[in-house]
Structure prediction request, 242 residues.
Amino acid sequence: MAAPIMEFEGVDKFFGDQQVLYDIDLSVDEQEVVVVIGPSGSGKSTLLRCANRLETIRGGEIRLDGRSVVDANVNEIRQQIGMVFQSFNLFPHKTALENVALGPRKIKGLSEEAANEQAHELLDRVGLAAETGSYPGALSGGQQQRVAIARALAMEPRVMLFDEVTSALDPELVGEVLDVIEGLAAEGMTMMLVTHEMGFAREVADRIVLMADGRVVERTEVDTFFDRPETERGQQFLSRLL
Prediction:
């Protein structure tokens, strides 16, 4: 059996004296979609931010392909572990094409022609072929989030992390972003997602991880979790949402 592509082993995280992650053990297999759910403040987003070194851990280990993320070059890690956030973080003075092409040019050393060609392909992939010359201010929130996804994909990451990427969107724009993520899952992209969209979680996930109070309290196959959660905490969480 192949080793997991990403592993969290005994991960502890503190903000000052306050511990926010406790002894997290978790693995993600290649081409697997793991959806992390739980109440606000449970540590979900912090876990993702630790995975690509936006936050540092105090104890434990995080590995990508068996190699330590904690000790690796941070720029290399962020090429291999892409992340999309709640906020779009696009450069307002650059077009959609320029936002997507910038990373491959500056970090990977692609020529302008090659980076632009890749950017065109990725914007088409997320349904924005007609918006390559548009600036972020002229795009809807859903379109800006799709540009942000294309920008992350431009680095050709091994793993994609999505941190509540629809939470800042108007309800009518949520579907267009979730459709893109579903397409990536169908193509075999390895992903970890934090989301409050339970219907989407059930549709796209291979496994559900439930967090509460900085701990993993349940991890199970998606149908098992939604049909018969194994823990009382899982039952309580679902009863409030469904």
In short: Residues 92 and 137 are 7 Å apart (CA to CA).
